[in-house]
Amino acid sequence: MNAEPDNGRHWCSGSDAGLKLCLSCHKVCPVQVSNCPRCSAVVHQRQPNSLVRCWALTLTAALLYIPANLLPMMTVSKFEEGQPQTIISGVIELVQQGMIPIALLVFIASVMVPILKLLVMVWLLLSVHFPRAALHRQLMLYRMIVWIGRWSMLDIFIISLLVGLVKFGQLGTVTAGAGAYAFASVVVTTMLAAIQFDPRLLWDALRAESDTGKPLEDYP
């Protein structure tokens, strides 16, 4: 009698195979090695305290996002008179001045992207604690926020360009407000949160869930 083919997914992690990865030079090392033989960096199976650090940085970024949008980003003074501008009021001002493409770019980079990154980070962290969603979607979103991190300072460059245009045209003076510092802190903390998050924890959560009896084919 022929045995039925096993359609389940069989896989093992690097730690199961007695291996771990150096995050500095990406050399695969034996699990017994504490320092990478290539670059001498300390090698861990998982980033130490990854979840704690990532939660702390994500919550800090979420708290900083509030003053970043409520406090003035900059003040443009003309003839010693000026009105502080927040991110939203600055976008409205750009639209009124006919700079719709720049206004759209600032709105996406300053409002939508930070919210998206925060929501994705929270979802990834919750997925480690409660592994229910598809793993490939989680990894895709993680790669997406890492890629977006390269463009996180885009609106800061745009503001710098506007400052240069104002000064070049002798239209007045520009002073950075508290919102600019808060927003820069949001950018830095979200980037650090993405760096501190260890995506291998998603695989660990999946394996722990499958060990409870849930078949692996339920995870696309």
Automatic annotation (TrEMBL):
Its main location: membrane. It comes from the Bacteria. Pfam families: PqiA. It is found in: Cell inner membrane. The chain crosses the membrane at residues 50-68, 102-126, 147-166, 178-197. Keywords: Cell inner membrane, Cell membrane, Membrane, Transmembrane, Transmembrane helix. One of its GO terms (cellular component) is plasma membrane. InterPro entries: PqiA-like, PqiA-PqiB_transport. This is Paraquat-inducible protein A.
